[in-house]
Amino acid sequence: MAADEPLVLGIETSCDETGVGIVRGTTLLADAVASSVDTHARFGGVVPEIASRAHLEAMVPTIERALKEAGVSARDLDGIAVTSGPGLAGALLVGVSAAKAYAYALGKPLYGVNHLASHICVDQLEHGPLPEPTMALLVSGGHSSLLLAPDITSDVRPLGATIDDAAGEAFDKIARVLDLGFPGGPVIDRLAKEGDPAAIAFPRGLTGPRDAPYDFSFSGLKTSVARWIEAKRAAGEEVPVRDVAASFQEAVVDVLTRKAVRACKDEGVDHLMIGGGVAANSRLRALAQERCERAGIRLRVPRPKLCTDNGAMVAALGAEMVARNRLPSDLELSADSSLPVTEPHVPGAAHPHSHAHSHDHDHVHEISKDNLYS
Ligand code: KG4
Ligand code: ZN
């Protein structure tokens, strides 16, 4: 770790995790996370107002914990990075406000960065600098996309995305139908290990010859699994939970890995990065490894703790912004719940004293679970 590499603190509050990470260049120094997931569990999903309140309470203690863990003083920081979007508007606002307050009080540059680009950049903390371009499959409760990133700080191109449910959302919904609790991914992953993935042939969405090659669809699969379970119950038969979990999971990871490997081949990229909460899935990791090896593609997947939402990923992208001399954000930075994936960060006006900026999006967007992520 070189002492001249940028020391950056990153704040993440786009959903239900209050994450604060500190990195020096591509080295992780601290990764403090306070989650309100238990508070949401009884509602079967994240409740935005509860998440915002929890961020507010956890913000300062989590920042202090991260600084202590890293053994650095806030005065030594070279920058403060924060997720400014996409995500839940009210939740983002807490992180953005905190970052602005710290940046202003300490006189440090502020970097409002994109949540999705951060999910990709975090792999630098585990496997070193990202190859350029990077092919990334991002799969979580809020997003499922295939992205090609020639430069993670300035050029991220969407190749495809889900046209309905996100992959993690499908795991959560099927877990609800099976009465397995929330979030559903980890428990389905665990039960699937004891089930037969070939027991039930569930549909593979958008894999026909005329379908968009890189887009995903999981709502048909979800309906098909729910109907299958209902039919069993209606017939008074026992639902083979482990086989259903394994067969459903296989349908999801089969499509994800098939399309990701195809995108690498089509674009001539010889490695694949997988990130987001669903990247913690053991079968996704195994099948991706198998298919990548067969295709001569190198697979990069960060450890599970770096795959789910965290502050270290935001710090990692912030450090890259500093290293590449990207323009910091203005102190007027707004949270943008639908920040496009094509904007890795929100640069300020080139002239810091000019007040003629064109913020056409307001702080508060209408909150609807359907338009949270672009
Ligand atoms: O990235 P993340 O922490 O938050 C979002 O931005 O959504 O992802 C959470 C999602 C949830 O839907 C959860 O069920 C899923 O990731 N997940 C998993 C696993 N662990 C978490 N899905 C499948 N298998 C897992 N092992
Ligand atoms: Zn995320």
From TrEMBL:
<feature type="binding site">
    <location>
        <begin position="138"/>
        <end position="142"/>
    </location>
    <ligand>
        <name>substrate</name>
    </ligand>
</feature>
<keyword id="KW-0479">Metal-binding</keyword>
<feature type="compositionally biased region" description="Basic and acidic residues">
    <location>
        <begin position="357"/>
        <end position="374"/>
    </location>
</feature>
<keyword id="KW-0012">Acyltransferase</keyword>
<feature type="binding site">
    <location>
        <position position="115"/>
    </location>
    <ligand>
        <name>Fe cation</name>
    </ligand>
</feature>
<dbReference type="GO" id="GO:0005506">
    <property type="term" value="F:iron ion binding"/>
</dbReference>
<feature type="domain" description="Gcp-like">
    <location>
        <begin position="28"/>
        <end position="315"/>
    </location>
</feature>
<dbReference type="InterPro" id="IPR017861">
    <property type="entry name" value="KAE1/TsaD"/>
</dbReference>
<dbReference type="GO" id="GO:0005737">
    <property type="term" value="C:cytoplasm"/>
</dbReference>
<dbReference type="GO" id="GO:0061711">
    <property type="term" value="F:tRNA N(6)-L-threonylcarbamoyladenine synthase activity"/>
</dbReference>
<comment type="similarity">
    <text>Belongs to the KAE1 / TsaD family.</text>
</comment>
<feature type="binding site">
    <location>
        <position position="172"/>
    </location>
    <ligand>
        <name>substrate</name>
    </ligand>
</feature>
<dbReference type="InterPro" id="IPR017860">
    <property type="entry name" value="Peptidase_M22_CS"/>
</dbReference>
<feature type="binding site">
    <location>
        <position position="189"/>
    </location>
    <ligand>
        <name>substrate</name>
    </ligand>
</feature>
<keyword id="KW-0808">Transferase</keyword>
<comment type="function">
    <text>Required for the formation of a threonylcarbamoyl group on adenosine at position 37 (t(6)A37) in tRNAs that read codons beginning with adenine. Is involved in the transfer of the threonylcarbamoyl moiety of threonylcarbamoyl-AMP (TC-AMP) to the N6 group of A37, together with TsaE and TsaB. TsaD likely plays a direct catalytic role in this reaction.</text>
</comment>
<dbReference type="InterPro" id="IPR043129">
    <property type="entry name" value="ATPase_NBD"/>
</dbReference>
<dbReference type="InterPro" id="IPR022450">
    <property type="entry name" value="TsaD"/>
</dbReference>
<protein>
    <recommendedName>
        <fullName>tRNA N6-adenosine threonylcarbamoyltransferase</fullName>
        <ecNumber>2.3.1.234</ecNumber>
    </recommendedName>
</protein>
<keyword id="KW-0819">tRNA processing</keyword>
<feature type="binding site">
    <location>
        <position position="185"/>
    </location>
    <ligand>
        <name>substrate</name>
    </ligand>
</feature>
<keyword id="KW-0408">Iron</keyword>
<feature type="region of interest" description="Disordered">
    <location>
        <begin position="337"/>
        <end position="374"/>
    </location>
</feature>
<dbReference type="Pfam" id="PF00814">
    <property type="entry name" value="TsaD"/>
</dbReference>
<dbReference type="InterPro" id="IPR000905">
    <property type="entry name" value="Gcp-like_dom"/>
</dbReference>
<feature type="binding site">
    <location>
        <position position="309"/>
    </location>
    <ligand>
        <name>Fe cation</name>
    </ligand>
</feature>
<keyword id="KW-0963">Cytoplasm</keyword>
<feature type="binding site">
    <location>
        <position position="281"/>
    </location>
    <ligand>
        <name>substrate</name>
    </ligand>
</feature>
<dbReference type="GO" id="GO:0002949">
    <property type="term" value="P:tRNA threonylcarbamoyladenosine modification"/>
</dbReference>
<feature type="binding site">
    <location>
        <position position="119"/>
    </location>
    <ligand>
        <name>Fe cation</name>
    </ligand>
</feature>
